[in-house]
Amino acid sequence: MQLRAWLQTYPNEEAGIDERWIREHRGSSATEEGTAQWREFIVAAKQRPDLLFCRVVRSGTEIVGFLCGRRDDMVALGPMYLLDEAQGKGVGGRMMSEFLAWAGSAPMRLWVTEYNERAVRFYERHGFKATGERELWRGRLPNVRMIRDSTSSDSLG
User: Fold this and answer.
1) Spatial contact of 107 and 71, defined as CB atoms under 8 Å apart
2) Number of alpha helices (DSSP H) and beta strands (DSSP E) in the chain
């Protein structure tokens, strides 16, 4: 599911991100080993819900989205993926509402791909603001840092 979400979301000619690059850098998520790592995280989140958050959304038997998080010095949101066919139906908003309830009033941070304008707007609707901090993931994918401080109020997104 994660590889499929990347293939739907991240190709960008200007950034030099194409299917080949995505498969080279994210293809491991579709292997048995990659799937096993995600299963381990989900189990760990069930065992340590105070530290880890993970919600998986299915349509029938197919996973169409998930949102994970971790409690550190700040609450880290991510990854969050939602396949195209599940977008615009309130699924992402419901996952985010659950995440925000889990995180409580703790300050939060995330990375989002700069040209993923739909995701940037989604996070803004939920009280996140860009910090100006940037990174190039694997030397190519332009990400921006967003934070949500403890005074941000929940929005209806």
Assistant:
1) no
2) 5, 6
Domain boundaries, the chain: 2-105
Q: What angle do CA 72, 121, 42 make, to 5 degrees?
A: 40
Two structure tokens written together for 36? 């096993």
Residue found by looking up tokens 């609707």 in the block: 125
93, 157 in Cβ contact below 8 A?
A: yes
CA separation (Å) from 141 to 42, 112, 122, 125, 144?
A: 26, 10, 19, 23, 10
Q: 79-119: per-residue pLDDT in tens?
A: 999 999 999 999 999 999 999 999 999 999 999 999 999 99
Q: Is residue 103 within a helix (H) or strand (E), and if so which, with residue range?
A: helix 91-103
Architecture of domain 2-105: 3-Layer(aba) Sandwich (3.40)
Residue 73: both structure tokens together: 């010095």
Neighbours of 95 (CB within 10 A): 20
Q: Compute the mean pLDDT over every residue in the chain, rounded to the nearest whole number.
A: 93
Q: Parallel, antiparallel, or unpaired for β 108-113 and 75-82?
A: parallel
The enclosing H or E element of 52 equals strand 52-59
